[in-house]
Amino acid sequence: MGYKVVFEQANAILAELSKEYDIYAPKRFSKQGRYSDTDIIRYDLINKVEDIVFDEKSDYPAKEVITPITQSLFYFTEDEYRESKTKNKPILIFMRPCDINAMEHQNQIYLKNGGFEDFYYKRVQDRVKIVLMECTSGWDTCFCVSMNANKSEHYSLAVRHQEGELMIEVKDEAFAPYFADAQEEPFHVEFIEKNQIEVTIPKIKDKATLNALKKHPMWQEFNKRCISCGACTIACSTCTCFTTTDIIYNENANVGERKRTSASCQIEGFSDMAGGHSFRPTTGDRMRYKILHKFHDYKARFKDYHMCVGCGRCTSRCPECISVTATVKKMADAIEEIEAKGEE
Ligand code: SF4
Ligand code: SF4
User: Fold this and answer.
1) What is d(CA 130, CA 109) in angstroms, rounded to the nearest whole number?
2) Using one digit for the tens of pLDDT, what is the confidence trace for 123-132?
3) What are the angstrom distances between the C-alpha of 131 and each of 24, 117, 153?
4) Is the CB–ligand 1 distance for residue 293 below 6 Å?
């Protein structure tokens, strides 16, 4: 069922929904951006439609609602522990199709990985319902179409933003009562069909090619360019790595809390082992690991799709202007060169 609601009506509906749901959407934080006088757009609680940023891509992904950058897992004393508390209130998140597809990858890692379910992820994810934000034009770093992440049927409501009004598609009947007084108008959400950037993800045909690619000099370029800041992975819709830290409250080392915090494979020391061995000591090694993970290894393991959803946030956030799509193209060229040498 479709509806057209002016902002005033939309805000009355949001007020009703807020009684049942915590509602999150991309929101502008004025003058909190990377450079002076710049804003940042990230997910936060909203209570009126004017809070929602529809016409710019959020700098940080929707995943922050479910997996915040840092969170307390449990509190401990000498002989017992207690899990951190969470709210029981359901959550409604405004998400673009790339972020919804990214959430499927997060589900794969946190809930379907080797039969293990992450308790802290599941207790939030179980409460999530989605409002799909129509996205038909994208931005200059987006390549969701190339990654098959431009569409999704996984939503309860869908919304199109127009001047002073919203078009709403109600897919989940549980939400129909909120629109009982709204003007019905046919509406079905549309999806972007072409990005400014198109990328063909290269196939790696066998182990010999993969091994040769790992040793290819193309990765060494990043020893000079990448500064290992990790900004790309923190902004990434699909990265899931985290580290845990025990915070000790006082001189008694057995009383405290365990926190988990987003970690980055791009940062020095990420792959260090006890005894001091590091698997990926250079920035080039770490870039190779990230790119192969997003565009080969994840799919090789889970079969259905590549991990990257083409949101382009890593490119937008990199202070060294390292483009993920340009890197994939370089990888494709390297694979072509390796295959050509193999045929000589
Ligand atoms: S690798 Fe880059 S483009 Fe792909 S999902 Fe992560 S942030 Fe988005
Ligand atoms: S954001 Fe750029 S410079 Fe920072 S770790 Fe990622 S690729 Fe390297």
Assistant:
1) 20
2) 999 999 999 9
3) 10, 25, 11
4) no
